[in-house]
Amino acid sequence: MPAGMEGVDRRRRFLQPKEGTQLPGYTGYCPQYKFLIGLTYGNVSAKMLKGVKHNPLTTSDPGQAAGPRLAHLPRFDGTRRLTEGMVPGYTGYIPRKRYKDAGTYGRDSALSINEFFGDTKDAVRADRALRATVAQAPRMTPTASQEETLQKMDCFMPRKVTLLEDKRSFLEPPMPGWTGYVPRKKITEVGLGRRYAVVAKNGFCEQKDHMDRHSSLRDTPVTLERNESPEEEDTGLLDRRLYRPEGMVPKYTGYIPQRRYEFGNTYGATSRSLPVCYHDKPTFGSYIRSQALQVST
């Protein structure tokens, strides 16, 4: 006997406590101990343990009641997950367990697993019987040849590649909410103050014009002699102006020359009153050169 047990027995023989009394120093759990005040530890523990009653296990307990024999419930062999005697706390999936109520975990799990395996075996048996019936049945003879059948089907659905026909045009704008790339949407004035469909259509159109222009430059002969007068205007650059005569959208966050010196007007009126917007030249540089020529003359 260990030395600690001999000390406890010696103390019990010396104190001769009542039956069920715990010796002072016991660190285990005593029910309702914190609600009793005014008695010693030994008397409190004897009083509490004397009032504890244990109800005997009855046969009406659903966990122990004799139920129907589970013929399809597999026994535990260490290789299966769904077997008899499922431990409470298992977090895996048990077929049909969610439809069982008012029973213990073990009983409901056993019934669910038994029903699942029983129905599985019945389904496999029925499938095999159906396959055997189909294999024994006489084969049906076709009423038309394969070529004739395909010819009739071609009247409704022609057998040819239709991917090229279903391909959309490059200039067709996508649906609003499309997260793909739209050319020139964020770097030019195409995406300012317009609906998504208009922005996408204009962006694709400008991109196609840009691609066509570059393609045409490959076949265009290059001439080194170019005589241009200061008043010559390039009308092709009018559509490429960033600062438009109608003014800028209030949400435009870019730089506008000379705007910091204008006060008292709205954003649109201020931008329309600036030379960088209201000039009628193809570019602002052409406008500056024309003004310089007027001053010099």
UniProtKB/TrEMBL annotation:
| Disordered: region residues | 1-21, 211-235
Question: Which residues belong to any copy of the Ciliary microtubule inner protein 2A-C-like domain?
Answer: 22-61, 248-272
Report the locations given in the UniProt record.
Answer: Cytoplasm, Cytoskeleton, Cilium axoneme
For this protein, the parts annotated as crossing the membrane are none
UniProt keyword annotations, A-Z:
Cell projection, Cytoplasm, Cytoskeleton
Q: Where is the Sperm-associated microtubule inner protein domain?
A: 167-215
Where does this protein chiefly localize?
Answer: cytoplasm
Q: Report one GO cellular component.
A: axoneme
| InterPro entries cross-referenced by the UniProt entry | CMI2A-C-like_dom (IPR018902), SPMIP5_dom (IPR055215)
Instruction: Return any one Pfam family short name.
Output: SPMIP5
Q: Cite the PANTHER family for this sequence.
A: CAT EYE SYNDROME CRITICAL REGION PROTEIN 6 (PTHR22146), PROTEIN FAM166B-LIKE PROTEIN (PTHR22146:SF17)
Q: Which family does it belong to?
A: Belongs to the CIMIP2 family.
Q: What is this protein called?
A: Protein FAM166B-like
According to its UniProt entry, this protein's organism is Branchiostoma floridae
Gene symbol of the encoding locus: LOC118414343
